[in-house]
Amino acid sequence: MRKTDGLLKLIGLCVLAGVLVAGMLFPVAGAAGVLSNQASETVDKTSSDLADIPPPLVTTITDNTGEQIATLYKQFRIPTTETQINDAMKWALISVEDKRFYEHNGVDWKGTLRAAVSNSTGGDTQGASTLTQQYVKNYLINVVYRDDKPGQKRAQEQSVARKLKEARIAIQLETKLNKMQILTGYLNVVEFSREIYGVGAAANAYFNTPVEKLTVPQAALLAGLVNNPIVNDPWKNPAKATERRNLVLDRMVDNQKLAKVDAERFKAEPLGVVEGGPQKPASNCTGAGTENGFFCQYVEDYLLKNGMTKDDLYTGGYRIKTTLDKRANHEAKMSAEAQVKKTQENVANTLSLVKPGKQRHEVVALAANRDYGLHEDQGQTTFALPSGVYNTGGAGSAYKVFTAAAALEAGVAGINSSLPVPDFYTSSVFAGGGNKCAPTGPPLRSRWYCLGNAGDYNPAGGAMSMQQALATSPNTAFVALEEKIGSTGPVVEMARKLGMRDTMASNLGGGAVDPKSDNPGVNASQLQAFGPRPGWAGNASFTLGPAPLSGLELANVGATIMSGGVWCPPTPLAGVTDRDGKPVPVKEAACEQVVPEGLANTLAVGLSRDSAPGGTSSVAAGGAGWNRPVMGKTGTTQNNGSGTYLGATPQLAGAAMVFRPKGGNGGLCYFGPGNVRTGGCNPNMFGGKTPAQTWFGAMSKILEGQEALPLPQPDPKYMGGGR
Prior knowledge:
Elements: H1 3-29, H2 34-52, E1 59-62, E2 68-72, E3 76-77, H3 87-97, H4 109-120, H5 131-144, H6 149-155, H7 160-176, H8 179-189, E4 196-197, H9 199-207, H10 216-225, H11 238-254, H12 260-267, H13 289-305, H14 310-315, E5 319-322, H15 326-339, E6 348-355, E7 361-368, E8 371-372, E9 380-381, H16 400-410, E10 418-420, E11 424-427, E12 449-452, E13 463-465, H17 466-472, H18 475-485, H19 489-498, H20 501-505, H21 526-530, H22 551-562, E14 566-567, E15 570-571, E16 573-577, E17 592-593, H23 597-606, H24 618-623, E18 631-636, E19 643-648, E20 653-659, E21 668-670, E22 676-678, H25 690-702
Parallel strand pairs: 1-5, 3-4, 7-15, 8-9
Antiparallel strand pairs: 1-2, 5-16, 6-7, 6-20, 10-13, 11-12, 14-17, 18-19, 19-20, 21-22
Helix pairs in contact: 1-4, 1-7, 2-7, 3-10, 3-11, 5-6, 5-7, 5-8, 10-11, 11-12, 15-25, 16-18, 16-19
């Protein structure tokens, strides 16, 4: 080596030493000038971030008994306390990463100067960071800047400025925390690869053991990982991992924390990690399994809708106790799957259940024939089929419930009022709202809304009571009833009030409204599309339920009626607590008395004949051995493209739907339970078949052993005639 090279190194060492010493003294002695002030502010800001920004934790979701069903996270971390860190883990880490940990004040001067000279003169890059400095760096990378790539890059750049800042923060930490607190903090923050952070999660994922029970070789493996978790991955690079583990054991011997004979014995042991990769839970709702995943998904959607951010949900370490009844959900799933195979192409069968109440409407079950999951070839999906606006086929005549309710509210008919039931009906009030047809009356307009019935009714005198019409579902009677109301306005608003909130706010495709679009099916909500406009009384087909809807919201309609007209949001939440166990308030919508209690009670009675002999769901009810009071309404859409059953008892309300989740033209063909398909057949699906069979099949088992409660008493005010 030339003399000038040695001199330059000596000069560099002296200059660097002066910079570092001056930097260390800065917080104590103070400094003048803008540059010094800015440097101090930067250090203070970073120190504040370390104190104020907590590490991401795992959010846990449970059922209504508190049993865990899923975890949500971005970083798999199990918090570890000081007392859980045993000597094996403590000394393995200290021996390999910071032998003088208990001797320095946050910075190892000898090591830092040696590394600085080596790095600045082109020698091998050396770290020489103490565990306290590594704690600072890892906290910045894994916590403060976890979603900030430029910030992460700055936190680990090889520069004197970064080292100086890191060292100053480390010294500040050493004045605020004791050594065990720093060691514990480091072991809770550092990454062990594959989204595994902290030694608690690592012990669980690598060895399926609690952290306090880590053995010496296990602790040595984990301590060796933190230097380079990717290179030392025991599954991808077992030879490297073994070499690194054995180095840690040697360092423990050098540090007089392990006998050499024991170290040699441990070196001969296999790595002992779990087979196939780290053991960690799913990081999203797929962890809830094929049966409970839809409910978990609704919990997530509900919290995001009510003000929580996804980042907060996935990093906040919340414990979310839900209203999920796993037994009810299982019965709902089994019934849905019994009617439609889970792998049946483009046929979904769902059942959503809600508990009525005047203070809360708790969601009890969200099930589908399809499994929740990522493997589409196995019939799985992560689309929220039971809760989202995914039934683009429509609810069919189940929407006649809204027409009946609007008629009761307007006073134009009661449940005993006689309604005309012609086989074919032409409306002049709703002219322009349907296809061209030959008018049966005076030719006042060139376009008419005209329709017929799906069956041959021919009731005595061509009329029947509203109660009988709700049970047998003639189309003409309810379009005529819309005429008596005067427009579709009260009907579509009734649908919104009783529970179809997200549904009526969506467009005709079931998606979000885009006012900038030129497509009328996209740029208007269903409330607007079916409601009246100047010169037009509205789209009378609304009572026939042709538009997309949410099955959960339809179930909540049943809960609203059975709750004396009180609407509450269908909540999946029993309680939320934060990482410290403190309750977290969730801003849920307030309950509303949307219709008079007498109206709701009378409507429930008006809907009570559907399962009786002659009603559209009577066969399904009889097949399930149903023998308790129930309000219900079936629905079938045009060309038998989808079917629905809305039913409710005082204990539980629910909606079952069978539909084509991928859309498409054509109807559904029913060949018996478990045999429903599309294409190559004559469509013959009805709401009284698969949907009603699904509903009664599940509810008969869920309510088994419970008292058969009567329906509410009707109010004479809404029984019959106008007022």
